[in-house]
Amino acid sequence: MQVDTIRYNRRMKKRIVTLLTLSLTLPVWGQTFDISRDVITDPNLSLRCKEQMKERAEKIKFRQKLNDLMNRNDVLLKKMPQTRPSMIKRLEANQISVKNELYLADLQVKAMEETIIRSGCPGINL
Fold first, then answer.
1. How far is 27 from 56, CA to CA, in rounded Å?
2. CB hemisphere CA count around 55 (13 angstroms)
């Protein structure tokens, strides 16, 4: 009789431990680990990052416009008759200034990207 009681108590203890273990671990298994929700971000940092990303996007648009100007200038230079040397000189001067602007815009975009990365903006998609 005593042996049965001891076995019964051991089984009950094992069952209780198993139930407690399962009850404590099941909520953890059911959770999805979303790091972006768990990361605490400073609102000032995110506002600064948004502003920097916005400036970068504007500079990239400007760079694309300069590329379009370069292409249009190339087409005009090819179509321009040789009988108009003053216009050809103007277009060549324009070509040089647009190239310089494009070079500066590229440098500025690279500098902006480095600044964004250094400042530690979360979720960077460059």
1. 43
2. 15
